[in-house]
Automatic annotation (TrEMBL):
TM region(s), chain numbering: 12-34, 46-65, 77-103, 109-128, 135-157, 163-186, 198-218, 230-249, 270-293, 305-327, 334-353, 359-382, 402-419, 496-518
Protein name: MFS transporter
UniProt keyword terms in alphabetical order: Membrane, Transmembrane, Transmembrane helix, Transport
Naturally occurring in which organism (per UniProt): Bhargavaea beijingensis
Keyword Transport in record: yes
Occurrences of domain Major facilitator superfamily (MFS) profile (ranges): 12-523
Membrane topology: Multi-pass membrane protein
Taxon lineage: Bacteria, Bacillati, Bacillota, Bacilli, Bacillales
Region Disordered, annotated ranges: 529-548
Stored Pfam families: MFS_1 (PF07690)
Keyword Secreted listed: no
Location(s), subcellular: Cell membrane
Length: 548
């Protein structure tokens, strides 16, 4: 696309960033709204699937579309991605059951994967590396802006409008993005001599899907299976078999969808594993903190958005600092270790909170996490790109995004299993025969016990207006008992969530230990010559960016 003028390139980049913002804001706006959506649709045991299915389909689309866009160009996949995303978001707003929402979010995830996979790669089509860095920074800033605006808007919408508008409000922006990409983004002819690795793509998809399904379905509660059940063991077995076939296929084909030689580079491997663990720990904070704020603290969704906002703002500043630091010093290992360490410390502090914890203390803990996430998130993508020759830059970047998406998805599954298991155990102890809650219920008349039984449900805590209405309708002599039961359920919910944060903190400690083994090589403003450097090896002599 070197024939395009600077003005045309800038206009195309604006169109790409509009498409990215449309995708990013639709992700961040959901988090704060999810507790109220679950309270409306029901299905507390399935709520993690709303997030999991999106990340699962996004991970698969990301890695597959990356290769296809190399062959057919970026434009058709950007347009298809926006189209899938808009249809999925539109249908999500009409969901009447949790299962419909899960299906439609899966469709949205396909679109999100297409957009993210092609947007960053399109920058490389338009600009040389030195110019590309500036635009990559601007595009990364879109995620920071969406992480600030999303929670605020999500909370406002569910407090003042119907929750369905969370999915619909930005659809006009999607139409604008589609029109801009269609009109401005140039089409390119199909690249000759390239073919699609269908077999490898199929077995990679089976590997990813079966693995994520195993972690998402394992646990306790409705729709869950024991870790030792044949369903879960069968999924893990399918993962192992499909992975083995995938590795065999990729070692034989001429143009593999994910070259195995990439992972011979220890920097790539360690960086991707750190990104994977970072994705797991980060989702524990992003997904489960709004549940604590709304369910345990009893704060409205919009108030939850305000509480989460400082963390997002701090994260943006920390990311900017990290980028400047690495550009100035050319070093990254210390930043990686300290960023992950600060993140783990913040998550461990979250594991110590309870219903009596002041809001300002909660915000300070979240800001600590924001500093750590902001400092560490830019590192591992950059280390991967810096450690490979130019010929592997695209696939290396795709692998980094894939591992982080896998971490996000598996993190939701694992941490969701921890929360569900802890909550089921505590509820059983409290309300099974002989438990404190069961003793209280047994002393009441059957009619009153049935009326109070509706309050013994963590989902009730996520809809404060409904809870207040239920309490207001009760007889005066029954209110103290009802309030005591609600406090008991709130204590169970708090304990389950803080146990989940503890598990997330442990995951981050593993990431810190792994980062210690990250090999440090200088960050240089140069790229290796793909024709003279062996695949997967660090170049001995870089070729400067402005050299032909």
């Amino acid at each position: 696309m070197n024939h395009l003028s600077d003005k045309q390139k800038v206009t195309i980049m604006i169109a790409i960033m509009v498409a990215m913002f449309f995708s990013a804001i639709n992700q961040t706006i959901i988090g704060v709204a999810m507790p109220r959506i679950i309270a409306s649709l029901g299905g507390m045991d399935y709520y993690t699937w709303v997030i999991t299915i999106y990340l699962l389909t996004m991970a698969v689309a990301t890695i597959l579309v990356g290769k296809l866009s190399d062959i057919y160009g970026r434009k058709p996949f950007l347009l298809a991605g926006i189209g899938f995303f808009m249809v999925g978001a539109f249908l999500s707003g009409f969901s009447s059951t949790i299962f419909q929402l899960i299906i439609f979010r899966g469709l949205t995830g396909i679109g999100g994967g297409m957009i993210m996979s092609t947007a960053f790669t399109a920058v490389g089509d338009l600009y040389l590396p030195r110019e590309r860095a500036r635009w990559t920074g601007l595009m990364s800033g879109i995620f920071g802006i969406s992480s600030v605006l999303g929670p605020l808007m999500g909370g406002f919408i569910v407090d003042h409008l119907d929750w369905h508008w969370v999915f619909w409000i930005f659809l006009p922006l999607g139409i604008v993005a589609f029109g801009m990409i269609f009109k401005l983004f140039p089409s390119v002819p199909k690249r000759e001599g390239e073919y699609i690795d269908y077999v490898g793509s199929a077995f990679l998809t089976i590997t990813i899907v079966s693995l994520l399904l195993a972690f998402s379905l394992a646990g306790e509660g409705a729709g869950k299976y024991a870790w030792s059940s044949w369903q879960i063991l069968g999924l893990f077995g399918l993962t192992a078999v499909s992975l083995a076939i995938f590795i065999f296929v990729e070692s034989k084909v001429q143009t593999p969808v994910l070259p195995l030689s990439l992972f011979k580079n220890d920097i790539v491997t360690v960086s991707n594993l750190c990104g994977f663990l970072l994705g797991m720990g980060m989702m524990g904070v992003m997904i489960y903190t709004p549940f604590f704020i709304q369910g345990v603290k009893g704060i409205s969704p919009s108030g939850s958005g305000y509480i989460m906002m400082p963390m997002s703002i701090v994260m943006v500043f920390a990311t900017t600092f990290a980028g400047g630091y690495m550009t100035k010093t050319g070093k990254y290992k210390g930043l990686a270790i300290s960023g992950l360490g600060i993140t783990s410390m913040g998550i461990f502090l979250l594991s110590m909170i309870d219903a009596a914890t002041p809001v300002y203390v909660l915000i300070s803990y979240l800001c600590i996490i924001g500093i750590g996430l902001g400092a560490s998130m830019p590192v591992f993508s950059l280390t991967v790109q810096n450690a490979v020759p130019l010929g592997q830059l695209g696939v290396a970047s795709a692998s980094s995004q894939l591992f982080r998406s896998l971490g996000n998805t598996m993190g939701i599954g694992i941490l969701g299993a921890v929360m569900s298991s802890r909550m089921a155990s505590r509820m059983k102890d409290a309300y099974a025969q002989g438990g404190e809650g069961a003793s209280v219920m047994s002393q009441l008349p059957p009619e009153q016990a049935k009326e109070l039984g509706a309050l013994v449900n963590p989902e009730m805590l996520l809809d404060q207006p409904k809870l207040e209405k239920a309490l207001a309708s009760m007889p005066a002599d029954l209110k103290p008992v009802a309030e005591g039961l609600i406090a008991s359920v709130r204590d169970v919910f708090s304990d389950a969530l803080t146990t989940t944060f503890l598990a997330g903190g442990i995951i981050m400690v593993i990431a810190v230990l792994l980062a210690v083994f990250l090999r440090a090589i200088p960050l240089v403003s140069a790229k290796p010559d793909a024709g003279t450097v062996d695949k997967g090896k660090t170049p001995a002599k870089p070729v400067m960016q402005n050299e032909k």
